[in-house]
Amino acid sequence: xxxxxxxxxIISAFSIxxxxxxxxxxxxxxxxxxxxxxxxxxxxxxxxPKESITKLKDGNSKTTQATAMGTNITISDKSGNITILMNMxxxxxxxxxxxxxxxxxxxxxxITYVDETKKIAGYTCKKAELKFADTDEIMVVYYxxxxxxxxxxxxxxxxxxxxxxxEYSINNQGIEMTISASTVTKEKISDAEFxxxxxxxxxxxxxxxxxxxxxx
Length: 216
What we know:
There is one protein chain. By secondary structure, the protein is mostly beta strands. It has a single domain (2-213), classed as outer membrane lipoprotein receptor (LolB), chain A, CATH 2.50.20. The protein has two helices and 14 strands. The protein has helices at 2-15, 205-213; strands spanning 19-20, 26-34, 51-57, 60-67, 70-76, 82-88, 91-97, 110-120, 123-131, 138-144, 150-151, 164-172, 175-186, 201-204. The strands form two sheets. The chain has a twelve-stranded mixed sheet with strand order 8-9-10-12-13-2-3-4-5-6-7-14. Strand 3 and strand 4 form a beta hairpin. Helix 1 (2-15) runs antiparallel to helix 2 (205-213). It starts with a helix and ends with a helix. 27% of the residues are buried.
C-alpha cells in the first residue's frame, strides 16, 4: 500500500498544474483536502499531504509537500520541465520529466467563465469550468487576475485561463482532492531554491514506477 501511495504522489505531482510566474515573486501556501477515499485507502489518510507550499520566481516554481513518509519537492523550470526530489529512507532520487513541446490540441481545455466570485486568501477570485477532451468531468477552478501568471506545460495545463488558479479540484486515481490557497506572500526568492542537489540520483518517471512495482 505504501508503494501505491508513493506512486499516487508522484503522478499527482506531475499532473497538478505548475505555475510559471513572469511578474509575481513570492510564496503561495495551499491547503489540500480530500473527499471520501477508496476502500483500499482506508486508514492511510494521515500519509497524504495536507499542505503544499509553492515558491515562484521568473518562470520557475518549487512546490514542497510533507507527508508521513517524508518530504516531496517538485521543481518546474521556465520551459515547463519537471523534477521531483524524494528522500526515501536515505535514498535520494530526482525523478525528471521533460516538457512535451508538441502538445496535442486536444490537451487544451474548453474554458467556460462563470459569473461568480469567491474570496480566497484575500484575493477576489473568479470561477471557471474546464472541460478536457479525454474526460467527461468538469474541473471547477477559481482564479485571480491580480497575480500576473502564465502556465507552464504539464500533463494538466490550462492554456488560455485568464489568471492564476487559487483553488481547484481534481480526481486522481479515484482520490478527490481540493487544493485551495490559504496565504500569498510577496517576497524575494533565492535562485538556489530551483537547483537540483548534487547528491540526488536522476531517474525517469517510468523508471520510478518500475521500481515501485518491483520490475527490472
